[in-house]
What we know:
- The chain has 111 residues and is α+β, with helices and mostly antiparallel strands.
- It has helices at residues 4-10, 58-79, and strands spanning 18-21, 25-29, 37-43, 83-85, 99-103.
Amino acid sequence: MSDFYCDEVLSGxxxxxxxxxxxxxxxxxxTRPAFPVxxxxxxxxxxxxxxxxxxEDEPLLxxxxxxxRAVAAQVLAEHGACRVVTNLGAYQESKHLHWHxxxxxxxxxxx
Length: 111
């Protein structure tokens, strides 16, 4: 199964506008934004979804949440509101754990 984040973003094939980055986590502006502010936060190591996190992944999960928190705080400060969402099952288009930090009214279908 294709994984857009591993195959395209992390490999550098699809360039992205980086918002925040650590050794293990990348936050970037969505390549097809559904909201005026639409940032995606991903672990750099493949994890299929929230349901596939193992106890060994807990340090990475804490780092991921710290980046989500920092990005959400920045969006909140700049725009006054934001949502933080992850999807599962049929709602999860790319089978790589990722979180959306969004603000504003939906401008296109999908999330």
